[in-house]
Amino acid sequence: MVEIDKNLQERFLNELLRGNRFECSAIVRSLAKSNVPIKVIYEDLFKIALYEVGSLWEYNKISVATEHLASAIIESLLNENYLEIISSKRINKNVMLSCIEKEHHQIGIKMVDDIFQLNGWSTYFLGSNTPSSEVLSFAKTINLDLIAISLSIYSHFPDLLKFIEKFRLLFPETFILVGGQAFEHGGQKKLLEYYNVIYLQDLNSTETFIKKLNNYE
Amino acid sequence: MNKEYILNSAKLLKKASNSACDEFSLKSDKLISEMNLEMLNRSDVENLVGKNNIDMMQDNHSNHIRFISSILKNYDEEVLVETILWVFRAYRSHGFSTNYWAVQLNTWMKILKIQLSEETFLEVQPLYEWMQINIPVFVAISDEKLEVPNN
Hints:
- The structure holds two protein chains of two kinds.
- Chain A has nine helices and five strands.
- By secondary structure, chain A is α/β, with parallel strands linked by helices.
- Chain A is globular, with a radius of gyration of 17 Å.
């Protein structure tokens, strides 16, 4: 299995904290050139860096401004790699992706979007803080095979459950994937009470799930 | 006393009834504004939260009520303990004193008793008492990860 070494992770983090988008981009391009899979770059470089940035804010080592700068750079790197992400082999499947209402952290669900695209799906990415009623209205306009929802803050868990209940009334069978940092310390047991709701903890398990769906067809 | 102790004690707390959760959630804005009013009227507020941290304190009050509202409805002891520990680490790192937690929880109790119905107050009281009693444990556990633990 391909891994990104610790020195490179540290270098990337340092450049990120300095706001050096150019160097961060160069690191990502060199990894892509060495055939490091996008999923590994996301999990072992971006995710690790973002968790570390969060931890540095927690211990008052960096400001909110630096934290936002780091997030903005990573988001720009996600968009920069779009051409490598889009799969030439398209399959006839649609997924809609969104953060739950009031949530502003969309990087995780954007990575999930890319994993679906890599596996040939057509994606409808609604991003952060989209009102639930709008998500439901939009879902009715496309031929939806699956919805993926991100929850970063546990305080919004009741909003997620309300959304699942409303969605289920409109789409009785459609798979609902749920993930996000809110579940880092638990809470996912409750999701098992709902029909066809699946909690996936990372991009690896997400991709395994997508591949199973693709093979099943 | 360590994290295992606190997790075991949190297992004894119970999920609140739907009616209590609904009342708590419905009154959340009022609870937050009463809390901010009480704390801002204190002459020692800057000693409690540190210099230039009033906005952060008010954010904490909003986050507190939203989190408690969520945990009352979907009780999970691990989420509860880990979130409180995160709050202690993050806010202490940013200059909040350990006394703030005692003052904050005492004030919440006072406000909840006035604003909530008696039935709902009796349902949320055990959780708040558990948090109050365990402040020293949360301080001790969060000390382990802080470079310069404050008072």
